[in-house]
Amino acid sequence: TKQVPKPLVPVVGVPNATHLIRYLASYGFDEIAINVHYLGDMIVAALGDGSAYGVHLEYLHEKELLGSAGAVKQMQTFLGADSFVVIGCDDLTDMPLDRVVAFHKEKNALATIGLVEREEVDQYGVVVMDDSGKVTGFQEKPAKGTERSKLVNTGIYVFAPEIFEHIPAGKFYDFGKDVFPALQQAAAAFYGFDARGAHWHDIGTPGEYRNATNDVLTAKLRIPGFVVDGAVWIGPRASVAKSAQVVGPSVIGDRVEVAEGARIERSIIWEGARIGKDATLRDAIVGMNFDVPPGTTLDNTIVANE
Q1: Helix, strand or coil, per DSSP, at residue 257
Q2: Spatial strand order in the sheet of 285-286
Q3: What is the pTM of this model?
Q4: CB 81 within 8 A of CB 99
Q5: Which residues, including other chains, have CB under 8 Å from residue 293's CB and lie 6 or more apart?
Q6: Between helices 40-47 and 16-26, what is the axis angle to 10°?
Q7: Distance between CA 167 and CA 65 in Å, rounded?
Q8: Spatial CA neighbour of 90 closest among 180, 173, 209, 174
Q9: pLDDT tens per residue, range 151-198
Q10: How far apart are CA 208 and CA 214, in angstroms?
């Protein structure tokens, strides 16, 4: 991400934001706003006005970051007078969004959080609910053995327009740290949707990025408009020498060159990279246009140009 903003990080050769737009469009969301800041011009250039995906895109160029809720507050006019969805551009999921929205409206909720189950929850925000699904408590990254739930916050939210009354203008404000605790303490109509069984990844860490890629390659996570046949994806303009070996799950991005004798195992190679003769890559991530010298061994390593 020194070269590429996180929304444009490729998942099986396609920017994650593109997967996300197609996911939203498959549920009928065709008016989408994206908050851009770091390398924001690259995002606008890559996604354009959204017409390529059958949607209309608006952009908020946030000069001063005001937090997750503060950014949404600035889009109040765009979001209008109906319920709306908020989702992170680093999320990759097959959560049934139509069911989340239906649950939100059935409960006449002010706010609804999409939740998935995790066996290990010490790196997540844990959500505690009563039998009706109403949120009764939070635990932020609880120590192992102290968690009160296995359901974690995905950052996929549905809000009624009245949520804007709970977000001050012009102030740094966060959903997780400010808005949600206040709603829970006020016993507001604040609910969690149990999407147990759905796949969800936040690709913001190398481990989750690999997990997301592997789930797509093995068809555990199905993305609208995207089909993978087998556990290795090779870009249409990539070049792989006949004597090279590629072991899945692996991604060989577009315009990648893999020289003779190279061996690639469970690795993700971004667009334009070159893998030298007899190089060995295991569990590696190689950044855009990076040259891996001949004979190099990369084992559980991430490399990228500045």
Answers
A1: strand
A2: 232-234, 250-252, 268-269, 285-286, 302-303
A3: 0.85
A4: no
A5: 276, 279
A6: 50
A7: 15
A8: 209
A9: 999 999 999 999 999 999 999 999 999 999 999 999 999 999 999 999
A10: 10
